[in-house]
Amino acid sequence: MVSSTNHSDVLIVGAGVIGLSTALALHLEGRSVRVIEARTIGSGSSHGNCGTITPSHAPPLAAPGMIARALGWSLQRDAPLYIPPRFDPALWRWLFSFARHCNTADWHHAALAKSALLNHSRGALGEWVRAFSLQCEFMETGEDYVFRDVHAFVHEQDEIALLNECGVNVEVIDGLTYEASEPALRKGVAGVLRFRGDASVRPDVYVSELARVLRERGVVIEENCSLEGLSSGWSVATSRGTFSASDVVLCTGAWTPKLRSMVGSAAWTRAIQPGKGYSRTYTRPAIVPSRPIVLRERTVCVSMWGDRFRLGSTMEFSGFDESLNRVRLDALVTAAHEYLYYPHGPELLEEWFGWRPMSSDDIPLIGAVPGQPGLWVNAGHGMMGMSMSTASAQMLAALMTGSEPPVDPTAYSVGRFK
């Protein structure tokens, strides 16, 4: 028997940036909301990422030629994308589906779908920061892709037409001009692509601030409360008792495939694989770049906040392996040494890894679960969870309440996976 105090209009599973943003969007639509989280608020990828808000990142990972590059990297443990050899039929099925999307038509479709969310979210997140006084070191300084190889710099400019189509303005800067204005970078910069429309937050603080606003508004967030069962109706069994709700939203990120026993082994549950990322956080060095940068050939992101300096990125498909791969962590600093005079700060504060929810077409799953009325999904954002969070939340809230979505929801349909 579920007491009335344990009932809410909506129960959200997951208190990362996607879950908390969804909770706020639904609360603003007048719904009563409860959030449950198996660990603590923002303890997954929302904690250790680089906090960039990046419409510039619209081109998907599933790109023409990516499979060949991934195979070439397969024996290189510090490669930007690494797939450790192992027996994993679920990963193999996912990789086969991913490979089918590595063509020009799907790449173009995914870029437009991602950009629609990224562009709306970029503006909406700033509105939330101002409206709710979120103290999260929000900065609208843009982001730079820095190249040391002239061929890579020239090749990357082939994507400018697509980025312009996606509404992203790109400024091309020659290496000498950039070096003269950016003392943090070592000599030898071949060129830079600047994205003035990008922004950044300190991700762990942003998530904490979302939780603060929700709790001040009466939204209950149950931490250390793991999902144990779902029954139509919806009755939700957890490690802290049973709750009921008219609607349940799964904002479970990379853990979504682990819910198959509860929601059925439908194709959409197999569309997500965990992609392991790493970061190192230091105290702030003496000289830092004036805005977040991507060390493009190494695909390493560099972010700075008031007293923090972070190196992050990489992609590793090793399942839910909980080991800290020292080779891949060290590769972050090795890359920074190539580009920066001060590649790290005086004190190492944290070494981190977390799993990104990678969908096989690199487009998130947002919407109703087919055949299960009242069950919804907001997951599969890959490396763009922070960047897409606000728009994804507002879109799902609109779908659930019958209002007009800010973005056409068709491309993100859960039912696209058959």
Polypeptide structure, described:
About 30% of the residues lie in helices and about 25% in strands. With about 425 residues, it is α/β, with parallel strands linked by helices. It has a single domain (about 5-415), classed as FAD/NAD(P)-binding domain, CATH 3.50.50.60. Helix 1 packs parallel to helix 9, helix 1 runs parallel beside helix 12 and helix 5 packs across helix 12 (about 385-400). Strands 4, 5, 6, 7, 13, 14, 15, 16 and 17 form a nine-stranded mixed sheet that branches. Strands 1, 2, 9, 10, 11, 12, 18 and 19 form an eight-stranded mixed sheet that branches. It is built from twelve helices and 19 strands. The chain has helices spanning about 15-30, 45-50, 65-75, 90-100, 105-130, 150-155, 160-165, 175-180, 205-215, 260-265, 325-340, 385-400, and strands at about 5-15, 35, 50-55, 80, 145, 170-175, 190-195, 200, 220, 225-230, 235-240, 240-250, 270-285, 295, 300-305, 310-315, 350-360, 365-370, 375-380.
Radius of gyration: 21 Å
Question: Which fold name fills CATH's third level, the topology?
Answer: FAD/NAD(P)-binding domain
| Proportion of residues in β-strands | 15-25%
**Low-confidence parts, pLDDT < 50 over ≥5 residues?**
none
How far apart are the termini? Answer: 36 Å
**What global shape is seen?**
globular
Largest sheet: 9 strands, mixed
Helix content: 25-40%
Tally the beta strands: 19
Number of structural units classed as domains: 1
User: Average pLDDT across residues?
Assistant: 95
- CATH class categorisation: Alpha Beta
Q: In the CATH classification, which architecture applies?
A: 3-Layer(bba) Sandwich
Number of helices: 12
Secondary structural class: alpha/beta
CATH superfamily: FAD/NAD(P)-binding domain
